[in-house]
Amino acid sequence: MEESKYNATVVGKILLTPDIMTLRVDTDEPRNEFKAGQYTVLGLYGNEGRSPNSTPESDPVDPKKLLQRPYSIASATSQLQQFEFYISQVKSGQMTPRLFNLDPGDRIFVSKRIVGVFTLAETPENQDIVMIATGTGMAPYISFLRSYLMARPESKMAVIQGAAKQWDLGYYSELSFLGDTFNNLFYIPTLTEADKTWTGHKLWIEEMLEKNILKDVAGIEVDPGKTHFFLCGNPKMVENVSEWLMERGYSKHTRREPGALHIEEFWS
Ligand SMILES: Cc1cc2nc3c(=O)[nH]c(=O)nc-3n(C[C@H](O)[C@H](O)[C@H](O)COP(=O)(O)OP(=O)(O)OC[C@H]3O[C@@H](n4cnc5c(N)ncnc54)[C@H](O)[C@@H]3O)c2cc1C
After folding, report:
1. Phi-psi sector, 226: left (phi>0), alpha (psi -120 to 50), beta
2. From ligand 1's centre to the CA of 266, what distance in Å?
3. Which domains, and CATH codes, for the chain?
């Protein structure tokens, strides 16, 4: 086998459910400065073991091949040598069952490049920000809140997090704490399969917007001149919410044509 490309060590792994985890890695060398919302590439060789909680992969992998996939960084931009990732396991996937089999002390490849245009910090300072996520789509927002919340007191910010059940709400404690602590941050979780103990919202994200929840809870207007929307997560949610926003004058942000609708798609 060629010389190993591994250049980082796993230092923390917390399973929130059997198929959702936060993974912390220390890179051997610090990375260059990056912006909250950007991603890097993680890599593991095909000969690494798969988690016991996975199914056989559909396409067998060459044991010598370095499997590589992009992952959004969830940690603050001040940390250049320790990175946190929020990852969901695709049981028949190639990369995630190997990531879920890692333990602290194991080695991994982390790309030296940190890239992406889903950068929340570039929104104009006087505008409001709405961050909408399902599943691990929360990762870029956690980086943003950990990095810039204190620096943006003039912007109202809302985090709408959609999930099926209570235990799917990753970072719930941190987000609740931030929402209770900062009067410009509004944390709005919603569950579609909540049990009786849940007293919060029980609507689909699209229904929440339709019911004017942003104005009622946070005083935020759905207006491309005043509010930037960020969408990350389930492709169906991203599609539905984008359509709803485009009907209200929003256009998708690209490098060439700036807009107030920012989209990060993890898979299609
Ligand atoms: C810019 C970017 C940032 C990303 N950030 C994250 C992140 O922060 N956390 C994270 O968990 N993933 C993230 N992803 C997805 C990640 O790169 C992998 O695609 C994912 O982890 C599956 O890899 P795999 O090798 O296990 O599955 P593969 O063997 O590559 O895929 C199997 C199939 O599963 C489907 N699939 C992929 N991801 C999911 C999913 N999450 N849920 C259901 N089905 C899926 C796809 O249709 C794919 O064809 C990101 C992707 C992009 C493009």
Report:
1. alpha
2. 6
3. 8-110 (2.40.30.10), 120-264 (3.40.50.80)
